[in-house]
Amino acid sequence: MNSNDRRIRIALVVARADNGVIGVAGKLPWHISTDLQYFKRVTVGKPVIMGRKTFDSIGRPLPRRTNIVVTRDAAWSAPGVVTAHDLATAFALAYEDAHRTGADEIAVIGGAEIFQQTLPRAERIYLTEVHRAYDGDAVWDVALPEGWLESARDRHAPDTPDGPAFSFVVWDKTRE
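RESULT FIELD:
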């Protein structure tokens, strides 16, 4: 990383149930329209890094974002995405894109393995806390290490009568 990269923050964008579930069978186990709008607001205009399974669950490139998909499969490709075969390459491509477009953040949008590998490099987390437990096969139940500070919290009532309450929480890594 060179000195010009320091102005570009790495941010994780995660929606997680109270029990750490982030997905089931390649989908979100809930539908919260307000969260989808929030996700769009915090990622549009930024390069987004995701694993192949996350891309498959979305089913298409996200508009107005450079979509960088990390996959170990050298033969995999999809129209409208940039492929990287490891995280180092994904970040090099994302920094290049952010410098070119003027974006101040790189958004890492999943899945669990990508989040886990990226957490040590992240400086911000946009976390949607879904206030309900769900069954699922993708879990990111991580307690943040020391050095993180909750800098914003916005609690919401359910979008629908049977939906869960949720909160948008921003965590920032403190400077040492």
